[in-house]
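#dry-run=false #mode=assembly
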Amino acid sequence: MIDLKHLSIAYGETSVVKDVSLHVPEGGSFALVGESGSGKSTILKAIAGQITNWTGRIRLGDHDLQQGRDPALIRLCQMVFQDPFGSLHPRKTVDTILSEPLSIHGLGDQNRRVLETLDAVGLARKFRFRLPHQLSGGQRQRVAIARALMLDPPVMLLDEPTSALDVSVQAEVLNLLKTLREQRGLTYFLVTHDLPVVSFLCDNLGILRQGELVELATVEQLKQQRFSSEYGNELLSKSY
Amino acid sequence: MSLLNIENLRVSFPTEQGPVEVVKGISFELGRERLGIVGESGSGKSMTGRAILRLIDKPGIVTADKMEFDGLDLTTLPNKQMRALRGARISMVMQDPKFSLNPVIRIGDQIAEVLSFHSKLNARQRRARVLESLEAVRITDPERVYKLYPHEVSGGMGQRIMIAMMVILEPDLMIADEPTSALDVSVQAQVLDIMDDLVTRTGMGLIIISHDLNMVARYCDRILVMFNGEIVETCAASELANAKHPYTQGLLASMPTLDEHRNRLPVLDRDQLGSV
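#status=ok
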């Protein structure tokens, strides 16, 4: 479903991502882990179309990504951001936030779609006309996930979706993500530095260091704490 | 003798619906040890830390039957003496170096400010001490870092600079409020190791306030678990896995592990906890 071939990204002189190739099958769940500055968010941004000066090939399903604005991409993948306090417009109600993508893409039947998606992410319908500041962190993240689901994209890009949340709220959101993936056959591409979250949510992972893919591993290897690269094991030892 | 002795500490804020108590009568003692205070957002853990330093301003109201630091009564100490205490004998490491360092003052000068306020060293001695303290937090080229501005250093280095600033006067008690939550996992361990090292070497008391149970269990001797402004559980860090209170057990269970085989994570039932 997601296919990266020799992806390289540079900001000016500085090369941030160096020749990364990886493949995520349809319905798979892949995690990219690494320290800050390793280029993991940059790869995510390139797939989401926020960065356009990349070289190599990015393929989503049957669609080859173009450099520059690509309207078809938006129906294919949507992103959930790290900070639910920063990613929702503070002066728009939940209803407006959720129906905006529908209006932009000219989809009808907005009332039914909004209510259905609210149910899907486990938000009570009474929250529909509230503003983000009236919601808790976990509820906001549910709105952000609902917004990403509105256009029914097959691919979800998740940028540290739970690291700003309390552990008990994190459990709720992780459960929700797992359920949604099972129900809708979504493909997840997750960026995180939290290895236990990877163990819960993903099938495969890639370890990134200074822009280079050091290792591609299965979640089984993570569970048994047996990576083949030295750096992978170093990351394991630092995580508790 | 204990370093810090707190009895029945209460913090409340007035609202339109009447006062809301965010810390509801907690008591604890601290020796020369590492104490972890854990809880979720809204549990009152940060307010406890700030109350010790008398950093809660009006309209917040702080009351306590007893709040003693090394024999000094913190509830009645005049502001002037309180200022002399802060930084020199009790210091606080804040969560995010991006917001806690002054963006327009060079790092070296910023650290030196502590010295010019609390000590009688001259400029040359101050500079030497600052370089020394930067080295103590494992910054390899202190001369260069001395001249940098906060935006020119990484998050991990920023946090180490904050710690350098806090330990330069060798306080008796350091309160660290979420010292690593703005940092990467790999840098987290490094920052905590440095703090741990300084605590063991100088024998100061340490309070780590955090929501991260595992981190606290690894770096502290004793743990207080807070929920809704109350201490619901006190235990030795090594005994955390055998916690008795349903809230602590719930928190522990809701964390995914490296070797995760559960299909769904258990979720805290807050309504039920309220009645416990």
